Each structure stands twice: as structure tokens, then as C-alpha cells.
Amino acid sequence: MNKIHAALSPAGETGVMHQAMARAHGGFGKTVAAILYGHEYTGFYTGGRFFLSMENADFVTQLSSLGPYLDVAADASPPEAALLVKQALETGGPSLLILDNVTDAGQWAEILATNLVPRGHCRLLITTRREGIRQVTDIPIGRLSKEEAREVFKRFCQMPNQPGAVLRAPPDDATADAITEWLVGLAVAVAAVAARMKQLPDVAWEDYWIKLKGLRVDQLPDVREDVRLELGIDGKELKEYRQTLRVIDDAFDALPPPERRAVEYAALLPEDRVPAVWLETLLQTDRQRTEGPLRLTLPREADDPVPPAQRVLKHLGVLDILLPKAEGGKLLSLHRLWRQRINERAPERAEDRLLLLAAIAACANGRYEVIIGRDAQGKNRGVDNPAVVTDASLRWELTPLEAVCRMLWQMERFGDAAKLGQWLASPLGQLGRFGEAAACLSPIDNNVAAVETALGALELASCYSNLATILRDLGDLPGARTRMEQAIDIKLKHFDPDHPTLATSYSNLALILQVLEDLPGARTRMERAIAIWEKHFDPDHPTLATSYSNLALILQVLEDLPGARTRMERAIAIQ
After folding, report:
1. pTM recorded for the entire structure
2. What DSSP element (H or E) covers 513?
3. pLDDT tens, position by position, 64-92
4. Burial, 401: exposed, middle or buried (Cβ in 10 Å; 0-12, 13-18, 19+)?
5. How many Å from the N-terminal Cα to the C-terminal Cα in the chain?
6. Out of 38, 357, 376, 531, which residue is the most buried by the measure of CB atoms under 10 Å away?
7. Which residues are within 8 A (CB) of 355 and not within 5 positions of it... i.e. 6 or more apart?
């Protein structure tokens, strides 16, 4: 209110327009700030304080509606009455005219074009969601800070008009801050919780906080009539369009298409772990599409060095919708209530969300090239030697990738999930993150047919083989044995019995059986692997050296020491 009053110059020169603009998306409190400013400065505005709702309204008609308060003849036509109102506001004592919810710069230009905007002694206070309304002092209204929200809770706990008297104790700072953070500082939602708790003096704040976390946006307390009465001004009920549910819906629908698309993608990505580089990639990919429902126009302003996708994300940050969360801004956080509400509306856009999900899956799998990396010669490094193992600047991305993989499994995108899990499990395993690596592949057990249909039998076998290796590292040796045997069974149906890929599986199974102390079984599988490799490799190939060495260790435990000696000497000769 102080900023608003400072912007509205106290001077009242004839012909000068004194104006300010309170700007924010719905629910942050711009309208309330404007109304409370009028209440706070009642004594200053001796010429009256007036409020006009401009959303989908004609300015001339609205202005003429003030005629009865300014002695304008009742039979005057709307244009005549509007002109007389303008003159009365300009020439009387200092007055305040609030134009609530001016939709955009175009509507403001139309209002100015009527030449009926009061000047002189009248101060003009505009509220709007939109930027770009020029020649008006812009006063952005954002999220409540934790300190401000504590004060809101405290005020609602006091007896009205009885200083010092309280209805109930306010929440402790920790509980108040937790509620504020959960509601992301959205003023209308914070006030609604405070009003509801005023009505429930016997309910502990901590108990209500637990309940609050389970509520949908359409279940927040401001959907209740008694709460809306508490939140209203001058005994009037809070208008429906100012409730949390509506303000989020309206604000989302009012976003330009590129920003709306970015928010939709962010709502599908892991909570508080939305990689900015993914959103940029997704928007750029949609921009490059030549057809289809995901095709997107990303206009580029002349002489603007910032790429269009980055500019979209930057502006969503200005609007307090998508903010930096971690990793120096690489990970973003979508306004929690926005995320929740957009996902609540998912059934309305089921087909569109499937397309968005497919785009996210493609983007996540496309990160293979970055995470795995290429060597100095441009050759793919392979999953056994990913760049992420040595480059911490890439490692942060593994966590959201693993979360997306789990999400794809849960949403029954089995092929996309298995494909992502295939390459992602290896770098996670190399970094010792075995539990996460297993989570990427273990759902295969319950979705074998779907994965085989999506990726083919050989990829299914590869998935089982990789899962077996991860389970071995986790110490689940029986599970590892089962998965490796499943991989071998699948490969035997599609490959020649002497195919090198079977040799690899036999060798891996032998190592698992060795740890399980099934030494005869381990010996048989390792000898089978060697027999296959001897048919395909030069006698001095390094792979054979490794296999001879592994077989020697098995024979040693079986107390076939001459056989162990022979194999180890052969390995040494090759090496």
C-alpha cells in the first residue's frame, strides 16, 4: 500500500494522469491490495473511492454506472453520464478510481482512446495480470513471505475489534512456515487456511497441517461458503473468480501458448526436479515440428540474444510460476498448486497429455548422447564408460532421469521406460547407485509381454541381463541367477547356439553361480562361454584371457589344481 501511495503523486494538477498498476497473477492479492489501499487512505480521498471491474466490461458503461454517486441525472445516456462522471472526479476533492483486472495492453489502449479517463484530482489504480501496459508505474505483487504469512495467521486468531483478545493461539513458526511453503505463499490460499482455522478453535494447527497436505486444490477451504464470507470485505462473500481454484485455472488459461506448454511439461516431470535444459529442448523440438498437435510457434524478438525457449522459462520465473530449485538453477520447481491443479485437470486433456508424455520420453532417451558422451574421436563411449562417471557437471541429471523412468513405468509407457532404464542403469550402477539402477529395470518382471512387444525379444533379453548384473551387485544372487537364465533362454530362441552374445551371458551366469557356490554349474557355463569365443576370436584375444583366468579361479576352488594352473598360464601367455 505504501508503494501504491508513493506512485500516486499527491499533486493534483489539471490535465495530468496520476496512475499506478498493481500486477500479479490471480490469487496473489492484487485486487485485495487495491481495495485495502482505498480503505487505508479513506481520509486522503475526500472526493470518494470507486471500484470498477473491467474483465470483459465496457469502460464507458462501467464509468457511467458511477453517476448516481456523483449527482449525475438518472436519464443521462451512458456516454453523457460517463463524461459527467469524468468531470466530477477531476474537479472535486482527491478521488480514487480502481480499474480491476484490466485484461491486457490492448484493453488499456481502448480505455485511453475513449478520452474519458479522469485526470487532475483523480488517482487511477489499475490491477492486472499482464505485463506490457506502458506509461504506468508497475507494482508487482508476489508470494507472501513466511513472515507475512505468520502475520496473516496471527490476525485471524485475534478477536475482531478487541485488541489483545484471541480466539486461539496462532501456529508455531515451524508449522506456519510449513503451511506457507506448501501453499507456495499464494495469498488467497494462505488466508483461506487462516480463516478456516478461525472456525475450528479446537483443532490443533499440527493436525490440520497433516490434513491439508492430502487436499486437492478443489478441496482447499476457500471453496466453503463460510470461509468465503470470512475472506470477503465489508461483509461480502469472496467472489468465486478470486478463489484458489479459479485463479489458477484462469491464470493458466491466460498464459501465451509457449508458456502454457512449458508449464504442462513441467507438471509431468518430477516435482521440484524439473531440468531447465529438458524444458528448453522440449520447446525447441515442438518449435521444429512441421505438423501435428504439438507444433508450437516460438517467436523470436529482433535483436534479442536470448533463445526463445530460455526467454519463455525466464518469464515464467518472473511470474513466480517456475522458479530455480537446485543445482544452481539447473533444476526448477513448478508452483506446487499449479502442478497439482494441472494434473487434476488431466482427464480433460488425456490425449494431449499422452503426446506430451511421449515427447518427454523421447527427450529423456535423447539425453543418452550427453550422459554417455563421445571420446576425442567422436566415437560413442558406450554405457560401460559414460562421461557422467567422471564429470560431476552431468551427474545431477541422473536423478531426474531415474525419476522419469519410474514415472514412465507407473504410467504404463513400458517400451519408453525399458529403453530409458536400459542405458541409465549402467552409469547408475558404476556410481554405486544400485537401488536406483534396479528400479529402472525391475518392473520388467511384471510387464514382460508389453516390453517384448515394444522393444523386441532381444532387447528384452538385454534388459534381463543388465538387471541380473545390478542384482548381483546388490547381493540378490538368486534374483540375479533367475534374470540371467531368462536372458539366455530368450537368446537361445533367436540366436545360433554359438553366437557371441550367448557367450557373454554364459560367462556372467558362471560368475553368479560361483558366488552362489554352485561351482560345477559355474564351471560348465564358463567352459561353454570359452568354447563359443574360441570359434569367433583369435586364439590370443584378450576376452579369452579373461575367461581362462575366471575358469582357473573356479577350478582352484574345485581343487582341480592342474586344470587351474593350465588355464592361468594360458591367460598369462595371452596377456
Report:
1. 0.79
2. helix 500-515
3. 999 999 999 999 999 999 999 999 999 88
4. buried
5. 81
6. 38
7. 292, 293, 294
